[in-house]
């Protein structure tokens, strides 16, 4: 029976259910985006152009990587008409999942499953689908939209399946970069499930999980780990509701490679029959090929330095019965864990084996490999099937044996035998053992070599339990059925041959049959031949599938695996398969290896795609900051009890309420009841290697009966069994109130053996962890090494359990907020028998406790560090004569001791009581303790509401869906920046400033207060410090005269706090006497060649008065160059200067002032008006327009043409230069505020000019024909400097004080200097 026939017989190639499908949509404009839409939500992906800004214009070749990660924007939101209005379907049929994103060169591709078929049902509600074809869609280019493969799907040819249109190769203009990946993923060896976590075996998954947690995926077996990781990380940043919606949409897919198939077994052939159901049973085999050291036969051999081996496969056999029983058994195979290679050759069985590293150099990687196996599965039993006669295989066996002998796990402690080591080996020469007349049937003889380990490893078993669903637990009818773990597998067989294919698969079939037989035997059942025939066919299909992946063809010896005998046709088929393997290994495997490495992201320079979701990331940060708004602390009560039963069952029917319902509880009812047992079965040599769950189930029933009877009153609730676990004699049961089940999640169990060096289960620990709301709690019950003087051994047992016991996601005991240890720790009291008994009679518990071994070990820090124990107020609990209160009176006369203890760790735990109970049917007394535990309760409704508010506000701020933003939007600003400290705004970028609202221009909603008098107006106080947070006594607002008043010119001055114009000083100067202050002459006035009268500025002043609105923003303080060409600004204020009337008192060049009033009189000179400095009148920002002087000059050129006639023709070019220089930059150095006299006039050619000062004069772009300057700002009194060697501006001079209220004449042209009041 081949694979296709088997699959057809089971399911008929049924496609996945419609609710498991999605639609792929695309939008081309304004930017390319792809959406995966389910019935309720949509995942929108868009390539970020900012990641490719530096990309070359030529597109790189396929499978080339430049080392720069591609960025994509992603958004997950509910579907709506507006959200998907511009999208169209990209495929005519639905898709069944997303495998992830991969970048090839500069292109980013989305991989989706386009065809799949159901191949397995592990149990109802848990199905597995096989991937039959995939498709890659480019996110950033439409170049590959019409590129399709031309080969049809064929499992044996390893080709890709058909998708899209049936185009020939001549119709395809370019080859798709992901064509080989498409062939690989569609070759029928990849499987996925949207119902459960297919990457983990049943034991490592929650027993009763309705939905699986993507975070728990085992990346060792997740083949699309590299592609799906960006989406998984994006999912982890979503809020709880959105994360649940994304999981429910079934968009993200976990894919394994290997084999998966189920047989449906009718009730007539099922070994376990369920009454009145009529449902079939399901027998399933799932093989998970590791992707850690993945590759083809001769390209991937041996081990690497990380401890990963080639062709490592975990194979799990599961059986589900309608009676509510689930069985699982796992075993592994893998290449010989040493460094070796083998070259492909054209002659079969002649490929030379090369050892590439010495035995000592191999040992670290060897130890790491088996340490990981021991942590994941427990004890390891190696089954080596290599030949003892072939030289190459003999050399591998020798190195294998050396590694095991020197591995720490293979060394038993003390005087224990080799059988008690965690790592054992059985060498079984398969070819030599099956050469006889029995043929491959002789392989069954391996049972006698491994049966002891098979019994000790046990298997995983879970059974359905009925719980009431109403809050008070009063309903007698079952409303909810849930699985409870009965037994766990505690070890694993590791089988290998050379290729780990043919011989390995046959032996693993036998081991799987042994485990199923043990499971049925414990239940008193026997399977029929029809059942074993289905079991054999599943394993034969498994061998064929794994062999095709690794070697290119089906497995050899599969005929015997299926039918139990080797036929001639089977032998001929093996010859054909061997020849086909030679072809694949020599000519096709290298290309297949490159494709595998590309899929797993292992090529040099290959980087994963980077996804960012601006809104969700922002929401997550805000929620963390506001967690106190939706989080509260509540207190729950926990009861913990421990009892060493000494293997006795006569107390099952006794009243246990003295222990389980002690008087310390009063009227309170604990939310959680944790009960631990030791020696639940008699620890004889037959029992310590096996785990029988029957005895544990009896005690579970006894506990529940006692609790229900005691709390069967008004106001109390019934308890339900949450989970239980067993390790031979140690057992742990967790009961919870029915009303708190909704607060409990992530319930997991684990065991750790320590007895006989961890090989047997007579000593060890059972642990169960859970999350109560948002508080993780762990319960550990342990039975440590016995013996008065073995306190060091007990401390080592504790360290082994604390370090080696692991839950899912490698979570340890210490990774919980609250931890409670309880059990028979076996620590004794270090006193003599009579001394101890005498102290007991005196009730001198303090003296006894001073000599307690556990107390001494904890004080010394050798055991249970950071744990606490309440004060012991009860008598030693060991050892009593059964049925009495007398301590041991036997010949052994054991010293009384507190062997049964309860310890705690966690700041949120407060112990309320600690005592023992008077139950006398064992040689121990039961001990109990009650605790008050503070748990963190998150109001999910309030959290979701706050999350939605933040989300909507952020979305409105950004302006809509982030993935649908226009292409010109700044995507980098959407990424956001984190604050350096909590409570501070995030850091700013060039485009994003925290003090601006969402990038908008700053605006103020504050209006100035009304002035005290209508003659004044209110402005910002210019004396305020620039830093608004600096303490100051200055008021925010000041009043200045309006423009109609005599002081109106001051209202035009800048009110910016950055322009320090001292209004009050100017006013005080204006109110002083009108006598001009005499200053030293700056130069000889008689040297001036021409005098220019008062300029006519009435029109200019009138235009300036008509200007309406606030003053323009200030220009830069440094005036820059004037270059040729007009640069007129509409808002530039008119600049002017005045010529002096009298030469008696030379007036230095004054500041150019803006016109505020145009009233002038020729008969009586009016007082000069304070003018706005030139540097305050330009409207351009200092950040974007350095050419300020040019605009000041050109703005007045047209109005001043008439003034040109008053300029003498004798005006020389040198004077032109001086006028231009003074006009544009005469204030390159300003005088100090306290100077009152000008320095003696000197020329300083070496003084650097103002930055950018030009020698050209710009007035409407040209000079007048006479050579005079075509503008009104012309100095009429300048010295003739034609005799100077090099024209240069004058040296710095000190400016005199100016009388602002004096005559407005007598002012010199040529620039401005700082005003200085008296």
From TrEMBL:
Biological processes, Gene Ontology terms: phosphatidylinositol dephosphorylation; protein transport
Record localization: Cytoplasm
Superkingdom, taxonomy of origin: Eukaryota
Biased composition (Polar residues): 1118-1129, 1154-1163, 1182-1218, 1251-1285
Predominant place of localization: cytoplasm
Biased composition (Low complexity): 1219-1230
Keyword Protein transport tagged: yes
GO CC field: cytoplasm; membrane
Region (Disordered): 1000-1040, 1069-1088, 1103-1129, 1151-1318
Gene Ontology molecular-function annotations: phosphatidylinositol-3,5-bisphosphate 5-phosphatase activity; phosphatidylinositol-4,5-bisphosphate 5-phosphatase activity
Pfam families: Exo_endo_phos2, Syja_N
EC primary class: hydrolase
Record keywords, A-Z: Cytoplasm, Hydrolase, Protein transport, Transport
SUPFAM superfamilies xref list: DNase I-like (SSF56219)
Protein family (similarity comment): In the central section; belongs to the inositol 1,4,5-trisphosphate 5-phosphatase family.
The protein, known as: phosphoinositide 5-phosphatase
Organism in which the protein naturally occurs: Podospora didyma
Taxonomic placement: Eukaryota, Fungi, Dikarya, Ascomycota, Pezizomycotina
